[in-house]
Amino acid sequence: CDWSSDVCSSDLPWPLIRAGELYRTKLGDPQQARERFLHARDLPSIRPELRIYAMQKLIDLYLGPLQDEGRALVELRRMVEEYPGTREAEAGRRAIAAIKEARSGTDSAR
Question: Theoretical Cys-Cys bridge with 92: which of 11, 17, 66, 76, CB 3.0 to 4.6 Å?
Answer without folding.
Answer: 76
